[in-house]
Design goal:
56% of the residues lie in helices and 17% in strands. The protein is built from four helices and three strands.
Length: 114
Amino acid sequence: MLNFILIAALAAVIILALLFRIQMNNKDRPYKGYILVPCVSGMTELERVVKSYYWEEFFQSKNFGREIILVQLDKSEINYTAKRLEQNYSIVHCVDVSELADFLKRRELKCCGK
């Protein structure tokens, strides 16, 4: 009986040590992700979509949080709504489709500290 308790305690210590090591490695390396939302004329639910994504990401871990990028595909009145949402929410960014690649490159270089 004593051997069983000793083996169980040793296994628990090893598992806790491995979990602690994994946790420490994850804190050093934040994961970055993006949610791309296309903004086209005639889109009526943009505000609801952004709010839904925002609250979903709000309750995620900071290491796994994603930013919401509103991609403007054409010139329309929905762009004004997109700009307003960008001002209201900290993780929302409004970008023209022609500037999307440059925006992502700037964010990744800033994130990695290069």
